[in-house]
User: Which sequence fits this backbone?
């Protein structure tokens, strides 16, 4: 899939030769006087020098939601795994540092793999994606808060999940990411049959994450249900876009190439 994507049409994920503030060090003879921080000197009577680091790459982290609801249909979680693996391999081929975080799930070799480069590291990430099984309850707000403390400023965060939680419960966690200038890309998975309530006879519906079974007549409830789903999609999109991120809707059985091409080009 990666080999088939059009090359040369994307905006580079690599940053320019920008100088990013790193830390301070005590002044020693020979240091450039231009790097002295006079404000610190005025407050503490200490001569310190600002140190910088050149940022020439954008570290990327993939956050995979492996909670139980992602396995409400087999195709949905398989699509999520395929998407994560393809994103990881694409970033690897572009020589970008890539990491993996897994929310919930079971069987994962590691729930956190920091961004790095190299073939062995990419293989480790692919094995991690393949090993995990959807299980447990979602907790997007806690996941975002926890991963935000680990991300570098001006890094790339790719979230792959169904976002099946009230946007008000997790959207504020995006504010801290925005302040760190994290480039946010959200891939929202859904199954068309679920979203359209495309069933012909009354059934009992349930969540793999627990709760009561709900008897429902799909034909009678379909119009109202589809309106609620459309409203939910809009809420997720607004929560991401208002923090200058991009949201991509990904159907469980859809061809991923058009979606990945939009991501590579930087198109919303």
Assistant:
């Amino acid at each position: 899939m990666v080999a088939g994507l059009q090359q040369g049409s994307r905006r580079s994920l690599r940053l320019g030769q920008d100088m990013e503030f790193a830390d301070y060090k005590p002044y020693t003879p020979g240091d450039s006087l231009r790097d002295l921080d006079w404000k610190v000197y005025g407050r503490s009577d200490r001569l310190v020098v600002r140190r910088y680091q050149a940022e020439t790459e954008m570290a990327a982290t993939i956050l995979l939601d492996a909670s139980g609801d992602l396995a409400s249909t087999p195709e949905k979680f398989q699509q999520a795994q395929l998407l994560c693996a393809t994103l990881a391999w694409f970033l690897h081929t572009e020589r970008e540092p890539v990491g993996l975080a897994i929310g919930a799930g079971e069987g994962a070799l590691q729930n956190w793999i920091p961004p790095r480069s190299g073939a062995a590291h990419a293989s480790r990430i692919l094995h991690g994606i393949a090993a995990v099984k959807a299980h447990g309850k979602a907790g997007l707000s806690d996941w975002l808060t926890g991963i935000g403390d680990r991300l570098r400023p001006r890094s790339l965060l790719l979230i792959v999940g169904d976002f099946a939680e009230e946007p008000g419960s997790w959207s504020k966690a995006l504010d801290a990411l925005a302040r760190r200038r994290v480039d946010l890309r959200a891939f929202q998975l859904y199954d068309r049959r679920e979203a359209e309530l495309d069933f012909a006879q009354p059934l009992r519906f349930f969540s793999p994450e627990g709760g009561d079974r709900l008897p429902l007549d799909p034909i009678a409830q379909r119009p109202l249900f589809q309106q609620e789903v459309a409203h939910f999609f809009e809420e997720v999109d607004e929560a991401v876009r208002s923090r200058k991120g991009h949201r991509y809707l990904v159907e469980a059985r859809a061809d991923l190439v058009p979606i990945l091409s939009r991501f590579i080009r930087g198109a919303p």
